[in-house]
Amino acid sequence: MPPQETSTASGPSPGTPASASAPPGGAASQPVSRTWKGTAARGMSVAPLALAVLAQVGVIGHGGGTGETAGPTSTQAVKCGTAITDYQSCHDHYATGCSAAGGYDGYLNALKNELVDPAGQPQNAFDVPHLKALENDLPKDLTKDNHEALKAQMSALGEGEVASLNGYLYYAKDGGAESSNCLLKGADNIDFHIGIGEKADVAARAKAKNPGLSPGDRSQAVIVEMTPHWRAKYEPGWNLALVQKAVGRQVYVVGQLLADNEHDDAKDDCAYTGAGGPGPNCWRGTIWELHPVTRFLVCAAAQCDEKGTGAGWTPLESFDPAKADGAAATQAPSSASPAAGGSQ
Asked: What does the alpha-carbon distance between residue 141 and residue 278 come to, in Å, rounded to a whole number?
């Protein structure tokens, strides 16, 4: 749903400030159901904008475990000050993060930095192909820096709601210095970039590391991200090594659905629908992500139910490769049970 203004206390800012993001909260609501067709041309609406209007006037609440988020309190892009020492000082004072020049999409970063309620239940279930197909429904005038201007249309597509994704873990890597985290480095201050694909045989190669993933394999994965301040608040045991131990396994991921328009170009996006289509070296399956991740389950059996329920599913923090079924999965998980990757 589109971000709403919420009040929150903020300490003195180091440098040029933006208000700190408010934690999730507010009136509970009934889950919003939606069915994804994945066939509309880019720029065509596939859901009524009335949902966005209801959220803005408070008829549909946020937080409270309903799968919706409270929304950032500021969307201003700002320059970094000099007193940012770690993720805490970054996110206490910079709702959108910061950069040297202050030139980034502040609304996008504010969404990325949401402290999404870990109890939020998925409003929509996706497999990898259906998440990629959602690219076709993006507003045709979306650019790298106008996310806020299109927030009603993006909300109508499900952005800001909690969603689930079923697939295979292809890779997990250090996200590096990014404006959303005030350009900080170090494992405790950065996002983990996690690639989820649809093919069990590719995941098996990733696990074996020989021959490993080709650039083409990586380009078919969709991205989910674990953010530093969300991890610190809700899952302090999550770390990159822990995620990497699950490479090759079937996984079920829950998190906030958003479109990372920073990568809306032919160079990065292999689902790019603009003039000329994707470039030859594109590296991600779509700009749609789950970000931040709020739940991460690993299948410790040869195959698990695609809904993230039943025997075999293990929370990431409890997953032990030595105790998991050693046989590589031989078939891809079935498509998300709701029609065309739609609502549960």
From this structure: 17
Give yes or no for residue 56 having a pLDDT over 50. no
Q: What is the domain count for the chain?
A: 1
Judged against a pLDDT cut of 90, whether residue 126 lies above it is answered with yes
- Cα–Cα distance between 224 and 322 in angstroms, integer? 25
Q: What angle do CA 221, 260, 152 make, to 5 degrees?
A: 130
pLDDT for position 73:
56
Expressed as residue numbers, the domain containing 217 is 121-341
Q: Tell me the CATH number at 171.
A: 2.40.50.140
DSSP class of 231: H
For 108, other C-beta atoms within 10 Å of its C-beta total 25
pLDDT tens per residue, range 30-42: 333 333 333 333 4
Q: How buried is 149 (Cβ within 10 angstroms: 0-12 exposed, 13-18 middle, 19+ buried)? A: middle
From 191, 187, 180, select the one nearest 21 (Cα to Cα): 180
Matching residue, tokens 């939020």: 120
